[in-house]
Amino acid sequence: MMKKQILVSMLLGLTMVAQAGNIDQFKKRKATVYLDKAEMCLEDNRCYPVLIGKTTPKGVFDLNIVKTHHRGYGGDVMKFKEEGNFMFAVHRVWTLKPEERRMERIASSRVKDRIMTNGCINVTNDVYEQLKAYFVLEVV
Questions:
Q1: Res 14 pLDDT > 70
Q2: In which domain, by residue range, is 88 found?
Q3: How big is the CA angle at 71 (ends 118 and 120), to the nearest 5 degrees?
Q4: Exposed site from 20, 34, 65, 130, fewest CB < 10 Å?
Q5: Assigned domain for 2 exists
């Protein structure tokens, strides 16, 4: 009976060590935005169209979820860079100005249609929800 308890304890310890290793891997999950294609690719090799701007900064950034009460953002955004008093963020497609046709533009196959933001990266709701499991954003 004692050997069985020791074996179970060892297995539990190994499981905890393995899980801790996975947590570090999890925190390194990276999404990549390709400005020349106006698309975001996740680690599962699936790519999605995004809205970007001419001023969307290139680099590798930490993603941080920030709560917001501003209308049109769904309650939170994913901040990745600040310059002065401007915050660059990944957020759900902002649709409060219907004349901008953002939902139509993000669905366009033409890259030039998807270059229209002030530097933030707009994604569809489903992509935003997937992105919550990512901690690093690379913009190239």
A1: no
A2: 31-139
A3: 20
A4: 20
A5: no
